[in-house]
Design a protein that fits this description.
This protein folds into 2 domains: 86 residues, BMC (bacterial microcompartment) domain (Alpha-Beta Plaits); 153 residues, Vaccinia Virus protein VP39 (Rossmann fold, 3-Layer(aba) Sandwich). Helices cover 33% and strands 28% of the residues. Helix 7 links the parallel strand 11 and strand 12. Helix 1 runs antiparallel to helix 2 and helix 4 runs parallel beside helix 5. The model has no long low-confidence stretch (mean pLDDT 87).
Length: 289
């Protein structure tokens, strides 16, 4: 196939609850990457993957999401000439310091770690999981606080693999990363190789309910409140009384409902961490005593 002479940048107004459904559709139809902003998804396609048929299919899909009650606006697009593309794409992703010792950077950054620092390299083929979103940052900060050396970790909805890589570099014994999206699995595998943690991180392409029984010391899921709530009963199968759970993707306005969901499933809150409109939670199963 000839190199594209231009790229298209789609802008889709939507609520956070709609992001996952929209991004899944986009990646399945040739999207090269997404950028998430408050109330907006920006998606990028080469000219070869953006036909009139796709436009019609995409508009129908968004109308169906609206009919289901999701908040989705009318998409718009603009053309980006190829000569501007590489510079523009790379300009989105710069090194970001998460904690005093943890930095996330793209592969093209020449940043060198200082003594004791942990560098996580992420090739940003998927915008979610590059370290720039508040929910990812919350999870990384909580991982650093709650992960103990030589513990086993379950990462549910691994995306780019960033949380699994962080767990490995923070001293986990074994990390199991799960995702149901093939694009995410491919991106996670690439990033795991890039960070040289293949011996620690194992990836599976299936939902958590299909996982054979085993116990983890720490479980992490950065998804959304509705999905997290549906997962809570399943997560108990892979934990014991001492396991900790790091949960994010929860809006501040959902804190009360999430608290009720946790109580109903016999979880207790250990720590609540807030960044902007987002929450990260550390929870544990209530003891029977």
């Amino acid at each position: 196939m000839n190199k594209p002479t231009f790229w298209l940048e789609w802008s889709i107004p939507s609520s956070f609850e709609s992001f996952e459904a929209i991004e899944n559709f986009l990646f399945e139809n040739g999207c090269t990457g997404c950028e998430e902003k408050k109330g907006l998804i920006k998606a990028y396609f080469s000219e070869h993957n953006c036909t009139e048929e796709f436009h019609q299919h995409f508009n129908t899909y968004l109308m169906n999401l609206t009919a289901l009650g999701l908040n989705v606006g009318t998409p718009t697009f603009r053309i980006i000439p190829t000569e501007d593309w590489n510079h523009r794409w790379r300009s989105f992703f710069k090194p970001i310091q998460i904690t005093e010792r943890m930095i996330v950077k793209p592969p093209w950054s020449k940043l060198k770690p200082s003594r004791g620092q942990i560098i996580i390299e992420i090739n940003p083929k998927m915008a979610f999981g590059t370290g720039h979103h508040a929910t990812t940052q919350l999870c990384l900060e909580l991982l650093e606080c709650y992960l103990k050396p030589k513990e086993n970790v379950l990462d549910i909805g691994t995306g780019s693999g960033i949380l699994s890589i962080a767990a490995a570099k923070l001293g986990a014994n074994k990390v199991l990363a799960l995702d149901t999206e093939e694009n995410a699995i491919e991106n996670a595998r690439e990033n795991i190789r890039l960070n040289h943690v293949e011996n620690c991180v194992e990836i599976h392409h299936h939902p958590v309910g299909k996982l054979p029984f085993q116990t983890f010391n720490l479980l992490v899921a950065n998804i959304n409140r509705t999905t997290l709530t549906s997962l809570l009963p399943k997560l108990k199968r892979y934990s014991d009384d001492h396991s900790r759970f790091i949960l994010s993707g929860i809006l501040q306005e959902e804190r009360t409902q999430m608290g009720n969901d946790l109580t109903a499933n016999r979880f207790q809150l250990i720590e609540l961490k807030i960044r902007g409109e987002w929450c990260g939670m550390v929870v544990q199963i209530k003891s029977s005593g």
